[in-house]
């Protein structure tokens, strides 16, 4: 029996009261299901007094079929019957936001997307852009909340600095933010000066901040192609940093982000070095893998699989910072930062966008002690904990 009810199920129990009599647009993806695995499109189609007039698909598309960085056209997502589908991840940075024309004729936007608790994960950025587009036009925004798979207590990672905003850093929040989508919406409304807008959050019932996804009793549905399990979400706030390098983050394997490496790395040597760091809550196992797509497709790679042994003390961002430093050093001249356009931005480069500044990259290049970064992060984490306090909805 489920111990937690999502905002979608709470809305249904309230007989869709906030939406009755309204023409709505729906921002959603495949993971927006109820405990019986019915998708929200199906649920709303049967809701009395609710007219589903438009659907907006985020990165990866309404159906979740597109890999990362692959644009999605409205035609590719046109799988919702007669309802018009718009893409919020097209070929330009402008496509990331709904336009006034797309919002015309709608009374409200409903947002239901499963987040994974990290600033890089772009669904919360899409939500922020929707708030900025809809609230000033007098459209109601209703966020149907879902649990943060990483729990709601721990916060980790650096603050963003001016000049490093992007789709993987749309707002200055901690890398691991410990908030739900509903809480993020409230934080964004306040910090963007949108308090006059009609934002309504339908909270989960039964979720506590200490609970990880496995504690909820809810079914896990892939919110994106490379987020197959809640275990993936645990390591993602750190392992996504490898996207900013020429090292494989495990895309093209069955355990993306948990597995990483490169053809030139010695798996055993890397695992011994990382286990020697005695990082809390994690063990590193040497692996060889052959990605089927993306980096090093068809090539044998040496690396590690990250096994979280104690999620309560595991710190993904600090762990992957140490792993990145080790892999960079062991790679020698074969290591490179990713320099091609990343999430519609050419400069700054990807790793700086992911960290939120160039501080961490230059620190790694200078081979300075990582504890110096930890000390800086601790102050920034404390600041974010203070900022987020007024947005908290759960015990």
Short description:
With 395 residues, the chain is of the alpha/beta class. Helix content is 27%, strand content 13%.
Task: Describe, in plain words, how this protein is organized in 3D.
This protein has helices spanning 7-13, 40-45, 100-103, 123-134, 181-191, 230-239, 267-276, 316-331, 350-355, 359-365, 370-388, and strands spanning 22-28, 50-57, 84-87, 108-112, 140-144, 199-202, 259-262, 282-289, 301-308. It has two domains: 7-221, Uncharacterised protein PF07075, DUF1343 (Rossmann fold); 230-357, Aspartate Aminotransferase, domain 1. The two termini are 21 Å apart. The chain contains eleven helices and nine strands. The strands form two sheets. A six-stranded parallel beta sheet has the order 3-2-1-4-5-6, sandwiched between helices. The protein has a three-stranded antiparallel beta sheet with strand order 7-9-8.
């Amino acid at each position: 029996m489920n111990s937690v009810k999502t905002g979608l199920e709470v809305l249904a129990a309230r007989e869709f009261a906030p939406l009755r009599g309204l023409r709505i647009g729906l921002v959603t993806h495949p993971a927006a299901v109820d405990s019986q695995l019915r998708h929200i499109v199906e649920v709303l189609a049967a809701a009395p007094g609710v007219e589903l007039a438009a659907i907006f698909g985020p990165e990866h598309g309404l159906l979740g079929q597109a890999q990362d960085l692959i644009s999605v056209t409205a035609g590719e997502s046109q799988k919702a019957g007669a309802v018009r589908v718009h893409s919020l991840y097209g070929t330009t940075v402008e496509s990331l936001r709904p336009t006034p024309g797309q919002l015309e004729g709608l009374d409200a936007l409903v947002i239901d997307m499963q987040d994974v608790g990290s600033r890089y994960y772009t669904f919360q950025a899409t939500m922020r852009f929707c708030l900025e587009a809809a609230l000033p036009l007098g459209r109601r925004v209703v966020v149907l909340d879902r649990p943060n798979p990483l729990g709601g207590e721990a916060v980790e990672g650096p603050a963003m600095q001016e000049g490093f905003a992007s789709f993987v850093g749309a707002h200055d929040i901690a890398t691991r933010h410990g908030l739900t989508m509903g809480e993020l919406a409230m934080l964004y409304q306040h910090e963007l000066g949108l308090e006059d807008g009609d934002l309504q959050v339908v909270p989960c019932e039964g979720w506590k901040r200490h609970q990880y996804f496995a504690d909820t009793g809810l079914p896990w549905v892939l919110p994106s192609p490379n987020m197959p399990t809640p275990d993936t979400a645990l390591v993602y706030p750190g392992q996504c940093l490898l996207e900013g390098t020429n090292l494989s983050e495990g895309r093209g394997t069955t355990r993306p982000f948990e597995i990483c490496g490169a053809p030139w790395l010695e798996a055993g040597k890397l695992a011994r070095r990382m286990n020697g760091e005695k990082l809390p809550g994690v063990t590193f196992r040497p692996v060889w893998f052959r990605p089927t797509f993306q980096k090093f497709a068809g090539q044998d790679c040496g690396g590690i699989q990250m096994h979280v042994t104690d999620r309560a003390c595991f710190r993904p961002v600090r762990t992957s910072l140490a792993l990145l430093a080790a892999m960079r050093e062991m790679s020698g001249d074969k290591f490179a930062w990713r320099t091609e356009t990343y999430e519609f931005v050419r400069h700054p480069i990807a790793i700086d966008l992911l960290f939120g500044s160039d501080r961490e990259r230059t620190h790694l290049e200078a081979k300075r002690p990582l504890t110096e970064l930890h000390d800086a992060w601790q102050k920034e984490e404390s600041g974010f904990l203070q900022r987020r306090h007024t947005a908290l909805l759960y015990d």
